[in-house]
Design a protein that fits this description.
The chain has a ten-stranded mixed β-sheet. A two-stranded antiparallel sheet has the order 6-9. The protein is an alpha/beta fold. The longest helix is centred in the last third of the chain and has 14 residues. The protein is globular, with a radius of gyration of 17 Å.
Length: about 230
Amino acid sequence: MTATTSGPPTAPGSRRALVVRGGWEGHEPVKITDLFLPFLNENGFAVETADTLDVYTDAALLAATDLVVQCWSMGGISAEQCAGLTAAVHAGTGFAGWHGGIVDSFRGDVNYQLLTGGQFLMHPPGFSDHTVRIVPERADHPIVTGLADFDVHTERYWTATDPLIDVLATIGFEADETRSRPVTMPAVWTRTRAAGRVFVSTIGHKPDDFDVPEVRTLTERGLLWASR
């Protein structure tokens, strides 16, 4: 296992975050997760990064971890690794991520999909201008409170989602030759799994997606919300 520690020494009582990053390099897992390491440090987390999924089999490490931030696109996860991650989240370790790093991970592993509450299926070719709409009934949720609908220029993820997720924001797909009617698709959601919290945003294919203030804000809030 390769693991390194990031950030200043941690004072007693502060929280611990584990950033697990790897998989398909097209999602720039190191560059994009590095955007959030200072934020986590500033919010009282000692941050450790790992480039192997074997950390999910280290029960003691995960039990001592308040938040797992995953950016690992595609690839495969073993039954032991998935079971370790799931057990940790059920026991209270938070789990959070964005885009393919969390919902295009480990395609075909149903237990992992049950943990995240959704799975990437496709996106239209290239990047497109589209609007992310805050769900009015959830506008007071701490992740999106005070945010209005906003525009992005990036991929639009078509996902299969669990009915038990709490959808905070959506995107739209217009009718076309394959879709008989317009569709509203979850784009940002949370869910609980026993004692643990899970945060998912489908926005974040490229680093400059996080230059949009609302994207950066809801992502940072999502990390804090998910943490133990």
